[in-house]
Amino acid sequence: MRSRRTIGSRMVLVATSTIGLLAMTASAGAWPSESPPRAEPPAPAGQAAEATKNTANTVNTANTVTVAAVGDICGSACNQTDDVVAGMGADAVITAGDNAYNSGTRSEFDYNYDPYWGRFNDIVHPSPGNHEYYSDAVGYDDYYRDNGVHIGDRGEYYYSFDLGEWHIVSLNSNIDARSGSAQERWLRQDLERNTKPCTMAYWHHPRFSTGGHGDSSRMSDVYEALTDYRADVVVSGHDHSYERFAPATVDGTEDAENGLRQFVIGTGGRGLYSGRSSSDGPSEVFENDTFGVGRFELSATGYSFTFEPVSGRDFTDRVSGECHNANQGPDFGLSTDPAAVSVRRDARVASTVSVAASGGFGSAVDLAVSGLPDGVTGAFEPSTVTPPAGGTAESRLTLAASATAPVGEYTATVTGTSGELRRSAELRISVRPGGEVVFADDFESDRGWRADPAGTDTASTGHWERGIPEQTRSDYSGQLKQLGSAASGWDCLSTGRRAGFDYGEHDVDDGTTSIASPAITLPAGAPALTFAYSVGHGDNSTSEDHLRLSIREGGTVTTVFEREGAPAEVEAGWQRATVDLSAFAGREVGLLFEAADAATPSLFEAQVDDIEIRN
Predict the structure, then answer these.
(1) pTM for this model (two decimals)
(2) 80 vs 75, 84, 116, 310, CA distance in Å?
(3) Which of 178, 263, 383, 555 is surrounded by the fewest CB atoms within 10 Å?
(4) 28 or 250, greater pLDDT
């Protein structure tokens, strides 16, 4: 098709700490970098990133958690700030961008950052700054992925997660964040879903700063969205200085009831700036002669912050605050660990439910679970817990899936009730087929699939291929049309995996493209197929466009799954499908995936991953 397509640039990411799970997302089109106050290379303009949904690791449960926060790190003095973090005993580390100077290349991460800050790779939750974009965030992406750090889908670096009673959101100030952008729309949806009383966000470019760069308006609309939902704290970097602001609205008006308190903590190790600027924000404390790290102690009702300097320096700063939406009386929080479980038919799986008391709470909490799929039951042991004042009580929730439980993805709600208090947490459940694996392919290696097996394909572009996909987004609708990451791992099947210069350059055009699996011998019994798929198309699509799965048996081809196009904008996104193959039990078959732009020219993209047949 023809509609502009953008190669994914990278996105900002979110912080994490004890308690909770990350639910993440990314997006958007790039902003040109601001010029630094000193001579530094200009950042490239025109980058873009896309919005998708991701899930990261869970972290442990505690009533108060410690988060280390800083940006602008390595740098000449990151061999000092790493010791500050280590001395905190932090549960999590969040970085506000510019992690490895000067250009965020892989070698700079390996030789400048890793020797000092690499020791936090098991707890770090980074976000990129403008210097990472000097190398298109490729080094950032490669380094953290290779070291097992979750940074969201490739090219998508903004997401959110729950940490205790805090909801934490990481946003990308290097891409479009204006009102109506994919990033700003996602943020408002994310905040609408949030059930936690306290909210923190962070990104690289500060809304307010009296340092050398000064105020930045590029995040004004997301700042306003955060204040609309009464978020509490924002952390930024970019200016190589420390500064604390009073809670304020987006125009700098002090507002203790609804305003965000912003911290600029660009003191991670890169040379400090001496320049000053005026600011619309209500600055309370400024320091540009001390390297150091911010320490947040996050509770169910508020935060306590300390700026901790490197060894040999005396400057420090302390402040505390209450969460706008927090209940300051006796209360409790509820979390699940893990917050996402997978269970096969005729099997069991467990998740630990933690109830954390605050404000002197010490009453019994009754636990319940709702929203379970048919054929799945849940049992708590015990079903009532009483946390000690300021402490945590736990229960084990065991889920049992019957042999006939429907395969699919579900979201259940775990609820705790104590008198008038009622708190809840989500538990994502994936029900998988039981039995032995007959065939599986995650496309991380070549298993013998053949494109155009019958020699009858007619598509001029968008042919099926295996490999790492590149994200594409419609300039017309702003929607993601091809995902930039596999459902798992790196590789998947895509209809033209390259992005190109226009977002319709490599989609399916002018006909059909097909790809066939190697032969598969199905055993007798009730084999079932599951797979991940994504379809994205434009409003010029018709019902003749399709993603189709057929079973090939000799010369017979039987369609068993189909997703048709329609005259509507449909955004790409990984989904799961299940197909009953009992009718083919005991036979040798093959899988045939087809994608078609079958009528008038239209935008149509399809992807497939994680195929598994069990019996």
Answers:
(1) 0.56
(2) 10, 7, 9, 6
(3) 555
(4) 250
